Amino acid sequence: MKGLVGKTALITGASSGIGQAIAIRLAEEGCNIVINYRSNPDAAEDTRRIAMEKACADVENCGVKALLLKGDVSKEEDAIALVQQSIDHFGQLDILINNAGVQADSPSEALEADSFDWVLGVNLRGAYLCARETIKHLLAHNRPGSVINISSVHEIIPRPQYLSYSISKGGMGNMTRTLALEYAAKGIRVNGIGPGATITPINDEWTDNPAKKAEVESHIPMGRAGTSEEMAAAVAFLASDEAAYITGQTLYIDGGLTLYADFREAWS
Ligand code: NAD
Q1: SS3 of 166, please?
Q2: Cβ atoms 137, 96 nearer than 8 A
Q3: pTM confidence score
Q4: Identified catalytic residue from 37, 165, 183, 252
Q5: Average pLDDT in the 12-29 region?
Q6: How far is the CA of 59 from the centre of ligand 1 (A)?
Q7: N or C: which end of the chain has fewer CB within 10 A?
Q8: What are the structural domain ranges in the chain?
Q9: What residues pair up with 148 in beta bridges, in sequence order?
């Protein structure tokens, strides 16, 4: 896609699932990638290996490079270091993908404050910290750039028993729009994607169980869960110059989940 060759992208939580697929796809598009991981260097190394193999399928992108950085995005000092080390290594940072995310389920009346803080800390505070540091760098060098927030259909669909997750993604949507408006005139675009049910480790409670998977998929108008690669394709588009006039949007990639699936059949 236009405008990605030679750019540098930091992807948080890139050692698994959607983040891993995004890192691989951006490398295939010619971006240098910074693979952030919280605790599993071997999995991050897998991301690097696959990304480099795929990038080299196109000889022109064989020069792309990857950097692995450990860090907990919810900690301010880690978020600052992630952005700074990306810039120190590659000389620039053009694209931030706020992908790191966690969820916790509990009836809301029993939700522990520590659990609430953990989910908000990773999903929202972490995204804000990384965005703040990236935008600071772009402004200081008068560079255009792109921030992409990996939100969820639960940015707009309330999810009982996942109060902290729903709040974090709702907040993320507002962060997307607020930052987009604040920095539009500076050439910094801020967008998000809202994945529906996607086959990744965060969902292994139902992806590995055929009966539960069928139950989840019965609620999706297109009749199947999404893949990480489908999410990554939309991210590559939003990061590219093909999306040069798009800012402040969350693109839902959900097989129709946000279309009020209960209305599929006419109500009598
Ligand atoms: P995943 O569990 O494979 O990925 C989450 C990643 O975040 C992991 O690599 C994890 O190590 C990392 N992470 C967690 N805490 C971190 C921290 N403090 N600092 C840095 N990294 C941290 O699951 P996934 O489905 O790939 O999730 C990726 C994003 O997609 C999340 O933001 C999630 O909310 C969102 N999402 C997923 C789905 C889905 O159905 N899979 C749907 C909607 C949105």
Answers
A1: helix
A2: no
A3: 0.98
A4: 165
A5: 98
A6: 31
A7: C
A8: 8-253
A9: 97, 191
